[in-house]
Amino acid sequence: MKIQTTLRCPRCQGLNIKKNGFNGNRKQKYDCKICKRCFIGDHALDNKGCHSQSDAMIWRMIAYGNGVRAICAITGFSRDKVQAALKRSRHQITPKQKHYDTLQVDEFHTFVGSKKNKVWLIYAYHAKTSEIVAFVWGKRDLQTALALKQRLKALKVSYERIASDNWDALVNAFSDTDDQWVGKQHTKAIEGNNCRIRHRLSRAIRRSCCFSKSMFYHIKSFNIGFWAINNPKQI
Q1: Which residues pair with 109 in a beta bridge?
Q2: How confident is the model at residue 5 (pLDDT cuts 50, 70, 90)?
Q3: Chain segment 58-69, per-residue pLDDT in tens
Q4: Quick one: signal sequence residues (predicted)?
Q5: pTM of the model
Q6: Mean pLDDT value across residues 49-54
Q7: Distance, CA of 167 to CA of 144 (rounded, Å)
Q8: Burial bucket for residue 190 (CB in 10 Å: 0-12, 13-18, 19+)
Q9: Domain range list for the chain
Q10: Beta carbons of 145 and 76 less than 8 angstroms apart
């Protein structure tokens, strides 16, 4: 009895395929005439990473507290596969409203390169909808706080009032706001969201050995995590 399978290109799913010799392990190689992809014939059988849903699975696991090595151990994917999926991610948050009544702003420290190198996140949060509206990366200074203000302006987001703690940089950056609330009593919601981020993203956990080795993957991971917080039913 013969079993026949249809060979498709793993990239474009095309059927216009031709043979292209063998690799070092004597496995048949093929070329796709449509997208020019070169691949191995039994790629789909011995490499879990080719599964069409693998990227979505990796993104979901990152959004719910798994690091790269943990994902490799659970799924059997290679580290290169997980990092490639992270690199391919295009998650970007966009404001769901053009006008907000109150935005809470706060700073949040993370580590990149080593536990001695802090990289600060400053972001705006809308408590009523549990939405992260905008964020910027940088140092814990006035310049980064002003960058958040400019980011909100670039997104054409307006607001009636800004609430922050007593940190001078945030107070001064938004000092021209008509209604400014200052004090920890006004930032309880965003402090709670900080706790959620630290539970949801392994790279944000405060007292652990987890940190990002590169800023590129650091930003990618937080983009996925923030997108998941803003779109919990779509991740």
Answers
A1: 120
A2: low
A3: 999 999 999 999
A4: none
A5: 0.77
A6: 62
A7: 13
A8: buried
A9: 1-46, 54-88, 99-230
A10: no
